[in-house]
Amino acid sequence: MDLQLERELYERFLHKEKVDRFLWMLKSPERRERIFDELRDTRYFNEESYEELSGQDKNPTMIIDRLKKLGVRNLVYVISSDDDDDGTEQVLEPFINTKIWQTEEVLGYCKKSKVGFFKNHEGWFYLLCKSK
Fold first, then answer.
1. What is the average pLDDT value for the chain, to the nearest integer?
2. Pick from 41, 49, 47: which is nearest to 9 by CA?
């Protein structure tokens, strides 16, 4: 796991007063599992840093196109409810095309573009980007 990159993600997209709580959760495997419980409520995200996608916009091809237009390249760092993917780098297109909808919760982040995404257990999908 890249805790520095995860710190950057939280500091970039969450409300400033909530960041310490998430950083505290990162320090323990047991608490880490609670991160997604908290993120199911979008009130933790800075309102200016996310955009919800719905309908056809959640089609994998559309998601990939939108992320690429925002500067996301080949690799994304993944924080996932799936232990096999959690804390790994994944190739963007295969991950979005085949894994994202089979995983309950996923945060993805491109360290080069500073753009991310979040998909929760109910299938809600958000682009995470500081400048809308």
1. 90
2. 49
Are 110 and 76 spatial neighbours (Cβ–Cβ below 8 Å)? yes
Is 18 exposed, middle or buried (CB count within 10 Å of its CB: 0-12, 13-18, 19+)?
A: middle
Residues 54, 6: Cα–Cα separation, whole Å: 26
At which residue do the structure tokens 């994944």 appear? Answer: 90
Q: Which two tokens stand for residue 7?
A: 């710190």
Enumerate residues 6+ apart whose C-beta is below 8 A from 60.
Answer: 96, 97, 100, 101
Dist. CA 53–CA 115, nearest whole Å: 15
Position 41 confidence tier, pLDDT thresholds 50, 70, 90: confident
Q: How confident is the model at residue 18 (pLDDT cuts 50, 70, 90)?
A: confident
Q: What is the mean pLDDT of residues 40-59?
A: 89
Q: Would you say 100 and 119 are in contact if contact means Cβ atoms under 8 Å apart?
A: yes
